[in-house]
Design a protein that fits this description.
By secondary structure, the chain is mainly α. It is 88% helix and 0% strand. Helix 4 runs parallel beside helix 7 and helix 9 packs antiparallel against helix 10. The longest helix is centred in the last third of the chain and has 44 residues. The chain is globular. The N and C termini lie far apart (66 Å).
């Protein structure tokens, strides 16, 4: 009986997004969203592909930091080549009223989107923790934050995200709560880490002002240079975090409305628009990499120039 109830809940949830009553007034907006997502998919594929090439050649970043950025770029790349094409298929099935394909596509979109977005959020939270450890551990940072441990952590994120997302086929509420609680926990950890970073940096700056007579010492100058480089790394990570919150927040609001008020044609359209905004983050992140990380920007510029000359 429990299994029958859970299957009924899943069927009801799928049919809500694949019904004439909910979707019949959204055909024209869905055409516009489909065109937008095609362009976003291409942008995410090309942009994150270039970033992955640049990160593979960039040698100044600490290997664990580079691996975390490559993981984030990989999830963004997968959004462009998996999640966005799937949602276009879903919208086309809605407009064609192919409800069997619609239900399969809707489940595939939710599963792929939930996995990729979960890994992205967990990776960004780990970047915040890694930046804090780099500040607090000092010389011990290289011994604690290793490439092997970072790889194991990222693998664990993928396993956790896949397990939590596939609970959708058991009970949608489990996946919803997993995502909701996980998002709040990730945001809380990131907020604490960046708050601790800014507080510690401010204290170090005050300490340096007191010892201003030592500024001519070469070791102190080198230390200040490293702090400036560290600030740039934190600034880059923080911009990625802010962009994620900005693009994910509308989706969280709409999903909360669906849970509280149920699905209506207007909320359905708002949800599809919010999903598009959520996927936009994957197309924007390569621009943030190039803007905030000078070494990556230079490699991307050189790669694009070589590709242009080759094509010519």
């Amino acid at each position: 009986m429990a299994n029958s109830t859970q299957q009924g809940m899943l069927k009801t949830y799928e049919e809500q997004f694949c019904s004439v009553e909910i979707t019949e007034t959204a055909h024209t907006p869905l055409i516009c969203l489909s065109v937008i997502n095609v362009f976003l998919s291409v942008a995410a594929f090309l942009g994150n592909g270039l970033i992955l090439v640049a990160l593979s050649k960039e040698a100044t970043l600490h290997p664990p930091s580079r691996l975390l950025l490559r993981s984030l770029a990989t999830t963004d790349l997968c959004v462009g080549i998996v999640a966005e094409p799937l949602i276009v298929v879903y919208w086309i099935s809605v407009m064609k009223q192919n409800w069997k394909l619609c239900r399969y596509a809707q489940s595939a979109v939710y599963l792929a989107g939930h996995i990729l977005c979960s890994v992205s959020m967990l990776t960004l939270t780990t970047i915040a923790v890694e930046r804090l450890l780099a500040l607090l551990l000092g010389l011990r940072y290289g011994q604690v934050v290793t490439l092997k441990r970072t790889f194991i952590t990222i693998t664990g994120f993928w396993v956790l995200s896949i397990v939590g997302s596939t609970m959708y086929f058991v009970d949608y509420i489990i996946t919803f709560r997993f995502g909701y609680v996980g998002s709040l926990l990730c945001l809380a950890i990131s907020f604490v880490c960046y708050g601790k970073i800014f507080f510690t940096l401010r204290r170090k700056q005050q300490h340096n002002r007191v010892q201003h007579h030592d500024l001519c010492d070469s070791a102190t100058i080198n230390k200040q240079f490293n702090i400036a480089r560290y600030k740039n790394a934190v600034n880059s990570a923080l911009w990625l975090q802010v962009a994620l919150i900005f693009f994910y927040l509308p989706y969280v609001v709409v999903v909360t409305l669906v849970a509280a008020l149920g699905l209506s044609p207007s909320i359905y359209l708002a949800r599809q628009t919010a999903v598009t905004l959520l996927f936009t983050n994957s197309s924007l992140n390569p621009l943030l990499y190039c803007w905030k990380i000078k070494e990556v920007r230079k490699i991307v510029k050189d790669t694009v120039t070589k590709l242009y000359r080759f094509s010519s």
